[in-house]
């Protein structure tokens, strides 16, 4: 679902500009899901570009502000969504947590890192 066509277009232009989008139809990429795809978008590359990560942070924060009630926290999945999640949480002035695919095998064996209460959204 595209919330804002201009945001989507500008984001796509940024991704192409920094070569975050890769095409390889002869040797498809394997996604985390196991699916094979001739296209891969490495969103982590955006983190190295101040202007782009600022744009993404502001756009995501704006969408959340406009479309949803104020969240109690922002959650990201390890590891790909931690950095941008922290940036959005900071922009919105709310806590950040992250979720691992499975609990750690050492320490407190947490699957969720950060502080969250039952029934928070």
Question: Helices and strands, in N-to-C order?
Answer: HEEEEHEHEE
Rg over alpha carbons:
16 Å
Bulk shape:
globular
Uncertain runs are: none
Distinct helical segment count: 3
Please give the share of residues in helix. 25-40%
Q: Taking all residues together, what is the mean pLDDT?
A: 93
Helix/sheet category: alpha+beta
Distance between the termini: 21 Å
Total domains, how many? 2
Strand order of the largest sheet: 5-6-7
Number of strands: 7
Q: Beta fraction of the residues?
A: 15-25%
Give a short account of the largest sheet. Answer: 3 strands, mixed
Give a brief description:
The chain has 121 residues and is an alpha+beta fold. It is built from 3 helices and 7 strands, in the order αββββαβαββ.
How does this model look, in words?
This protein is 35% helix and 17% strand. It is α+β, with helices and mostly antiparallel strands and 121 residues long. It has 2 domains: 1-68, no CATH class; 70-121, no CATH class. The strands form 3 sheets. It has a 3-stranded mixed beta sheet. Helix 3 (82-92) links the parallel strand 5 and strand 6 (96-99).
Describe the SSE topology:
Blueprint: H1 5-17, E1 21-23, E2 29-30, E3 36-37, E4 39-41, H2 50-67, E5 74-77, H3 82-92, E6 96-99, E7 112-113
Parallel strand pairs: 5-6
Antiparallel strand pairs: 1-4, 2-3, 6-7
Helix pairs in contact: 2-3
């Amino acid at each position: 679902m595209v919330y804002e066509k201009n945001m989507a277009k500008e984001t796509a232009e940024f991704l192409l500009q920094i070569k975050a989008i890769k095409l390889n139809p002869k040797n498809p990429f394997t996604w985390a899901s196991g699916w094979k795809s001739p296209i891969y978008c490495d969103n982590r590359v955006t983190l190295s570009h101040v202007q782009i990560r600022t744009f993404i942070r502001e756009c995501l924060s704006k969408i959340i502000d406009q479309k949803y009630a104020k969240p109690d926290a922002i959650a990201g999945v390890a590891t790909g969504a931690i950095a941008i999640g922290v940036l959005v949480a900071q922009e919105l002035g709310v806590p950040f947590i992250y979720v691992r695919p499975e609990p750690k095998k050492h320490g407190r064996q947490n699957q969720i890192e950060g502080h969250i209460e039952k029934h928070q959204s």
